[in-house]
Design a protein that fits this description.
The complex is a heterodimer. By secondary structure, chain A is mostly beta strands. Chain A contains four helices and 20 strands. In chain A, about 15% of the residues lie in helices and about 45% in strands. Chain A is globular. The chains are: A mainly beta, B mainly beta.
Chain lengths: ~260, ~15
């Protein structure tokens, strides 16, 4: 028996919004520690990793490990039927071929349940090594979304360059060139408005705008986003899911031949 | 010429 109840159901709605453009199907791996998802996009350019810890749920029961393969487009359609303040419960029997989503209004006066077929997905897991990144940049998630949206008008790629002076995002194309520089904030009223840079060595990498734009669908999840970069390794774009976990996107850089 | 890398060239299959 698997059952996970989340009073703050809108977090789950937001997680799905942040996945559905990148992935069409994926497996949710459930264990007594929580729920995890790891999947590559169809082109194998990026990888998404989601963690929802058991202690972040208001009730969590997972008697035996199970992997629930889901069509994320369908899951997203179902979650869109939940109101933002609904309590969401996910339920499945052991070795079941379907999953049930229950949405309760806060006053318990409306209860809806939706059943969805599970899929048998043969998904390969990739081992992500622990990495000490050369540069770790934290900035407001909305600012990052805006930068990527603005620079996407210029070309297909964004160059992210981090030095001790700050971080520079650049794009070039037929209409011209765009550069956006962010310096580390000296002082801010709110922590979530800060730009912080931890840098061991300068690093410059080039990434596809198309993917960065899809990652920014997770902006609704968290006030801040963390970008981790090292030379010639994938970029990590991380959004926290409240205090219960994270959505991490890994993006392979573009490489000069 | 610049080419897009693949994520599975960076991470090992488990």
């Amino acid at each position: 028996m698997f059952e996970a109840r989340l009073v703050q159901g809108n977090l789950l709605k937001k997680v799905l919004e942040s996945l559905k453009d990148l992935l069409t199907e994926a497996s949710w791996d459930c264990a007594d520690t929580g729920i995890q998802l790891q999947a590559m996009d169809n082109s194998h350019v990026s990888l998404v990793s989601v963690q929802l810890r058991a202690d972040g749920f208001d009730k969590f029961r997972c008697d035996r490990q199970l992997s629930m393969g889901m069509n994320l487009t369908s899951m997203s359609k179902i979650l869109r039927c939940a109101a933002n303040d609904d309590i969401i419960t996910i339920k499945a029997q052991d070795q079941a071929d379907n999953v049930t989503f229950v949405f309760e209004s806060p006053n318990q006066e409306k209860v809806a349940d939706y059943e969805m077929k599970l899929m048998n997905l043969d998904q390969e897991h990739l081992g992500i090594p622990e990495t000490d990144y050369a540069a770790v940049i934290k900035l407001p998630a909305a600012e990052f979304q805006r930068i990527i949206k603005d620079l996407s008008q210029f070309g297909e790629s964004v160059v992210i360059s981090c030095t001790k002076e700050g971080v520079k995002f650049s794009a070039a194309g037929d209409i011209g060139v765009g550069n956006i520089k962010l310096a580390q904030t000296a002082s801010v009223d709110k922590e979530e408005e800060a730009v912080t840079i931890e840098m061991q060595e300068p690093v410059t990498l080039t990434f596809a705008c198309r993917y960065l734009n899809m990652f920014t669908k997770a902006t609704c999840l968290a006030p801040q986003v963390t970008l981790s970069m090292s030379p010639e390794v994938p970029l990590v774009v991380e959004y926290k899911i409240g205090d219960m976990g994270h959505v991490r996107y890994y993006l392979a850089p573009k490489i000069e031949d | 010429k610049i080419t897009q890398g693949r994520i599975d060239n960076f991470f090992q299959r488990e």
